[in-house]
Design brief:
4 domains; alpha+beta; 12 helices; 59% helix; Alpha-Beta Plaits; 9% strand
């Protein structure tokens, strides 16, 4: 189909939500009917005909005009929606809620779409902010006392706490080590790696928090509400698994349900805001996920979550890889 898949679309954006009221003309709507019938034939069994070969009128008689019209409208809208978003330069953040407001053969199809969109806001000088925080970064060190504490813990775990001071000979009873110095060096490297990883997490938290402090945006309520609902669903599953009542859970964490949800909403808003900021920084820095890395990580995730939606897994992997690259650039 060469012509535009919709006649008009009026877009209004308020509080990071786009409302689109549009029209698909009757001729365009009618043009999708043939494809709708072809799709229905594939799974429709009509006596005397193989699947996919029944006459159109017999398909209409079997399914009903109303069902044909409804499916045709859905097909027309699925094709029109991406073009509307592209033509109006809308950056969406959620699945659209589409409602048909007028539908009849021989008439234009009228519809209303609501979808969350990227908030309008200005980024501060995020590179300058990150540079200021990175200037305070401390070099991580491991003390002899920390190494000694780990050795004592290993001795307890192995039931060797009576060994006293380790020597090059007795250290071999704790593992495959040539001598005491090799054990200490291995522990030093492990502790240093843990400290550097924790320090990196703290630096990144400080960077995004400092950038977010300079940003004012109106978050799409549908995004926040969706995250709250997912938290509610996870809580319900956990309570069922533990055979626990809601009041018992909140007594256990020493919070009222009202305080709990207030804190959850605050955390979710902070998380969503940070995600959107990182998304905008990635756009400004022209950061994209490496496709080979995406495929590698996606394959790994699918092996652990075979029933998960592949598109959502891909989005998750791409976001993780892009954010990692953004932070690497800010840390430079």
């Amino acid at each position: 189909m060469n012509k535009k898949p919709y006649e008009k679309a009026n877009v209004k954006i308020k509080n990071s939500m786009a409302t689109i009221e549009g029209v698909i003309d009757s001729e365009t709507l009618e043009s999708y009917k043939t494809l709708t019938l072809e799709n229905m034939k594939k799974n429709l069994e009509i006596p005397g005909f193989r699947k996919g070969n029944a006459p159109d009128q017999m398909v209409v008689n079997a399914m009903g005009e109303g069902r044909i019209l409804e499916e045709t409208a859905n097909l027309a809208l699925r094709n029109a929606y991406p073009r509307i978003i592209e033509d109006n330069h809308i950056e969406t953040l959620s699945m659209p809620h589409i409602r048909v407001t007028k539908l009849a053969w021989g008439n234009s199809l009228e519809f209303r779409i609501e979808v969350a969109v990227m908030p309008e806001y200005s980024l501060p000088n995020y590179r300058k902010i990150a540079k200021g925080i990175m200037a305070k970064k401390e070099t991580q060190q491991v003390t002899e006392e920390e190494i000694h504490d780990v050795i004592k813990e290993i001795q307890k775990m192995r039931g060797k706490e009576t060994m006293g001071n380790l020597t090059d000979d007795t250290v071999k009873e704790l593992g495959n080590f040539k001598n005491l110095e090799e054990l200490k060096e291995k522990i030093r490297q492990n502790l240093l790696g843990e400290k550097e990883l924790a320090a990196q997490r703290k630096i990144r938290e400080d960077i995004i928090a400092a950038i977010a402090k300079e940003v004012s945006m109106t978050l799409p309520s549908v995004i926040v509400e969706g995250e709250l609902q997912r938290t509610e669903d996870r809580l319900e599953r956990e309570l069922q698994k533990r055979n626990m009542k809601r009041e018992e859970y909140f007594q256990g964490i020493k919070k009222t349900e009202e305080v709990f949800w207030k804190e959850e909403e605050s955390t979710i808003k902070e998380h969503v805001k940070n995600r959107l900021i990182l998304k905008r920084v990635a756009q400004k820095e022209n950061v994209e996920a490496d496709e080979k890395q995406v495929e590698h990580e996606l394959s790994h995730l699918k092996s652990h979550y075979p029933d998960a939606d592949e598109n959502r897994l891909r989005e998750y992997v791409e976001e993780i890889l892009i954010n990692e690259e953004v932070f690497k650039r800010l840390e430079q």
